Each structure stands twice: as C-alpha cells, then as structure tokens.
Amino acid sequence: MGIRELFLRISGRIARYDASHNFTCDLCRREVFENERLCNVCRDELPKIELFCPFCGRRVREAGVCLECKKQPLRIDKARSVSCHEGGAAALVLRFKRGEKYLVYTLAEELTPLLEREFADCDALTFVPMTKRAERARGYNQSRLLAEELSRRTGKALLDVAEKRKETKAQKTLGRAAREENLKGAFHLVHRKEVRGRRILIVDDTMTTGATAGELAALFSRAGADRVGLLTFTSVEDRTLHPKSNHTRRNL
Ligand SMILES: [Zn+2]
Ligand SMILES: [Zn+2]
Known about the structure:
The chain has helices at 3-21, 40-45, 67-71, 87-97, 103-118, 132-138, 142-154, 176-183, 211-222, 244-251; strands at residues 78-84, 124-127, 157-158, 162-164, 187-189, 199-207, 227-235. By secondary structure, it is an alpha/beta fold. It is globular.
C-alpha cells in the first residue's frame, strides 16, 4: 500500500468517525455544536453567490445576463447554485463524489433554503442518472442522494424517471458544443406520464456548462413537463468573464 493510499484510508476512517459523532466541522474539523455540519468560519468562507445571472445562476460582477447565456442560452428554465466552485465548496463536492457520502447532509442543509426561496412552486425533484456501470464503480449516484435528501426535507415528490444508457466521454475535457454532441441520446425517459404537466427540479452537485442537465431538461420538456429547473451546490464561474488562469500564467 502506498503512502497516499494509506493516508486516504486513514483520513476516510477519521471522516466516518467524525460523521457518526457529528461534533466537528466537515471542512476544518474544529469542534461544532451537535447537529451543526460546518463551523461559522468555514460557512462564512464558502464563496456564496450573491449577485447572479437570472438564467444560469452563475456569479456575475454586474447585475444582468452573463456572457455565456447571451452566447447560448441554457436549455433549462432557471438554474441556481449556492456557491461558486472554489475553495471549501469545491472541496466538499470533490469529497462527496469520492466516497464521503455523509456530506450529503452538509450540502442538503445549504441547498434547502435556496430551494425554498427560488423553487417553491416546483412539484417534483429528480436527479441526473448514471449508467449502471458507472454507478457500480462509484457505489452510489451523488445526484440521486442529494435529490432524495432534499425530497425528505421539503416533502416534494422524488421522480425516478430517466436512465442513462450510453457512457459518455469525460465532460471535463470537452468544450460546450462537444459536450452537447457527446450527450445526444445518452438519456432515456422510462416513465413519460410522470413528467407531463409537472414543474420539475433537477438536483445535482455542480454545474459546469449546464449541458448535462440541459439534455435531461430537453427530454422532460419534450414529454410535456411544464417547467424544468436546476439546483446545484456549486457552479463554475463564467471563464470568459474572469480569465483568472491566464493572468496567473502571464505573471509567472
Ligand atoms: Zn470549519
Ligand atoms: Zn447566465
């Protein structure tokens, strides 16, 4: 066993121990009150989105529609996220996807007030399906865990109506047009009737370009859904507006 693997194994065990005792912050491990998931410091430091694009919900510097949405509107009626995909928020998402399932409670706690504020009139929650093979490899579908927990907290119905049958290339490496092409025909609706006339909210951990949720939303809309929204814990900030990485590279 390599050092890294050993470290991951031990830190995973500590995280599970902490989760079962629930007295430490999920980010910094400082002591917190019972039932608290994050300490005040870590919670204040989450890069929360205050000013956002009315369509995609990404952080914007000035009020109005973001450049991404001006170039190519999302195929979703309205998307919102709690936080930018940076710092502690990005770390929580990464760990949640890499085995620390109990973080679903931390994320759901932050998502619930936003859901109640922005999507009060939605009547059903759903998730982004994974192929059976991918789900077996990870052991769970993180988007489904989130939707289930939010359904439990809000009393809204949970829809399990779509399947992913085609494995797609890692979206990370692709541009937006390539992502949409990659996703064509990936999802299938297995219970069309449950979708008709409903105001559906897709729940996921993070939004990058919105192409995955957009493909699913298009499927729901074709089957007669009244409206389709997207709620994620984080969203990747519009790079065209803030080319931060170019700056750093130039300064090196
Ligand atoms: Zn903390
Ligand atoms: Zn936008």
